[in-house]
Amino acid sequence: MDFSRLICCISLLCFSLVSLADERSQRAQKMLYQQVSLLALVEPNSHFDKHKLSLSQPVVDPQAVQQIEADILDFWQSRQIPVTNHAYAELNDPLVRAMSLEPQLANYLQVQNRIRHLQWLAAQDWWQPIQIEYLIRPGKQDPVIPDIVRRLWLLGDIDSSASESTMLDSKIADALRRFQRRHGLQPDAVIGPETIKWLNTLPSERATILANSFVERAEFMAQRSERFLVINIPAFEMELFNRGKVELTSKVIVGKPYRPTPLLSSSISNVVINPSWRVPKTIMYNDLLPQVRKDGNYIAERNFDVYDRDNKRMHRTAEQWSDLAKGPFPYRFVQRPGLNNTLGRYKFYFPNDFSVYLHDTSDPELFDRSYRALSSGCIRVQNVEGLANWMAANLVKDKQTWVDRHEERTKTQWFALNQTLNVHLVYWTAWMDDANQAQFRNDIYQMHSQPVRKDTASAQINDL
Question: Which domain of life is it from (predicted)?
Fold first, then answer.
């Protein structure tokens, strides 16, 4: 090989190495940009917005990159969420450094990809409000159907938007049911106000909701013990975690918006078998006394005992109770244990300042509803037998005593657990499910909702 040819080969090699280094730097810059885009949604109007702008430029100053990397690490550390490699600064390869700063979260890439897609949608001029004037049911025609199909396609709920049919056919109905399930709605394929509201929710709003809920949940999970119970209020769901795995799930009923279930953490220490129900004054005045005014037999039919301020049980006829309920009522209600007791078979007690707890219910048909903010603050559990059996198997040593205390259905029995079970009432309105689908739920207590656009849905929908 002559000297000139050797020089040429060396030059080509150097050029290839430089090109490879530039390519890795560009990939690293893209990874940092994607992560900073997520963090800017969680901390708006912060340095992450500036970092996002810097990383969108063709070339970024190395010192600026170092500051961006440091701020990313600080964000995750402040939330006790580990990154892939804390010693990223010792690495020379920019791509490996960028990878090292990604959080150790199972579905981080899926969330990031979904947010990137939503932000791309937000950059397009495709989200004009869809309006309807009446409910659109499967098999019906409406000129708005093609717009709805396109919206479903953009959100990934149908595989094609090419059809211009104005008929709500079976394929579109299936896609609507999929969309409705992802948003906690009744999957009936009927296009009504709630379905239209979520179809009109801007991609930028979706991205913000998903990013914030993702980080909130990740921070929560990073600080938990091996065994705990979590109730996600907007999802109307309970999950029992044991050693990192979900061992039990259940639908739940939570407090109404004007009687909200509080956010708190505590520990279940006792199970009450066949509980009696001491009716809170608010429920007595707002719910029970109106029933007694209509029919004084309500007290006897529902197995209520009435006590005065000296804890003396009062006896009156149905007519007398009806009359008394129309004026000042200086008494209290206690419902005896039994088959029609409002608390059902079990009450799971945990100390808190709000007098709320988990319990069974005498109205199991309410769990069939998609919207389950129906209680006065306590949490009703559908799979209450499953929860009680899990506790008996894992937190109770004297299992025979546990069995014995179930024999008498009308006698209240307090049972102290050998170990407590941590319980957390949380509020997450979005997450990625096991099928990599983005789930969204209504902000039922208006805790962090954004202003509703006036043009997102018709003011009144008629049922034709």
Answer: Bacteria
